[in-house]
Amino acid sequence: MVVENVRLDKWLATAGIGTRSEVKKLCKAGRVRVNGEVVKDPAVHAVVGRDVVECDGEPIPYEQFVYFMMYKPQGVLSATEDVRQPVVTELLAARDRSYGVFPVGRLDKDAEGLLLLTNDGQLAHSLLSPKRHVPKRYFVRVEGCLDERDRDAIAAGVILEDGYACLPGRLEIHVAGDESEASIEIYEGKFHQVKRMFQALGKQVTFLKRVTMGPLVLDPGLTPGAYRPLSAVELEPLLKLRA
């Protein structure tokens, strides 16, 4: 959606400068300019793509939606708030938190890897919709020797302990032994699904890392707890899923 005419308080709040009330104070203090002119009325409108809005001399582009790729570390919840445990949004800078972003989908507390955070609800819904079957790829270590029978079982659709029949997935075995390593691709996101799939095969997951979600691939340059905005190249195929 293209927004053409935006109130100053919404423009600056959406850009993460502060809350609407904080932005009003900035305007009244004469710290906001539009096209070089001080504007003290937060209700004044500016046109996206035409007007230049500045706060304390810094140009502030209008961004309705933001998209961050995070390498979620272990021990942190994929949530926006929790009274007892740390959550992923606490890893964001204050300005980035102010956009109102949330994690798209689950990633277990003791798991790590790719997590998308955004305030784009439509995209999140599309990525998580069971009808879309968006692929997610994980690297796993398990106790026990993986073999062709496990690969075939996952390809056929594993039956979980509660009787749920998983959609067919794909298992690629890297190391087979007392402790095995593999990549698994699934097309849904049930609670603890990867762990439960391997449990159904008599294996215990000891390490779980998500590396892809749809067209999005975890940046190998990110370390656990780090994040960055998506590039235009990464964002383009994601936005095609919003339709």
Write the layout of secondary structure elements.
Elements lengths: L4 E3 H7 L5 H9 L3 E3 L2 E2 L6 E3 L5 E3 L2 E2 L7 E6 L21 H4 L4 E2 L8 E7 L2 H8 L7 E8 L4 H9 L13 E6 L3 E8 L6 H8 L3 E10 L2 E2 L9 E3 L2 H8 L4
Parallel strand pairs: 9-13
Antiparallel strand pairs: 1-4, 2-3, 2-5, 5-6, 7-9, 7-15, 8-9, 10-12, 10-13, 11-12, 13-14
Notes on the structure:
The chain is of the alpha+beta class. The protein contains seven helices and 15 strands. The strands form three sheets. Strands 7, 8, 9, 10, 11, 12, 13, 14 and 15 form a nine-stranded mixed beta sheet that branches. Strand 2 and strand 3 form a beta hairpin.
Describe this protein with a few key phrases:
single chain, 243 residues, alpha+beta, 9-stranded mixed sheet, 4-stranded antiparallel sheet, 28% strand, elongated
| Beta-strand residue percentage | 25-35%
General form? elongated
Structure classification:
alpha+beta
Approximately how much helix is present in the residues? 10-25%
What would the average pLDDT be, to the nearest integer?
93
Order of helices and strands: EHHEEEEEEHEEHEHEEHEEEH
Which value, in Å, is the CA radius of gyration? 22 Å
How can the largest sheet be summarized?
9 strands, mixed
Number of strands: 15
Oligomer: single chain
Ranges where pLDDT stays below 50 over 5 or more residues in a row are: none
Query: How many helix segments?
Result: 7
Query: How far apart lie the N and C ends?
Result: 12 Å
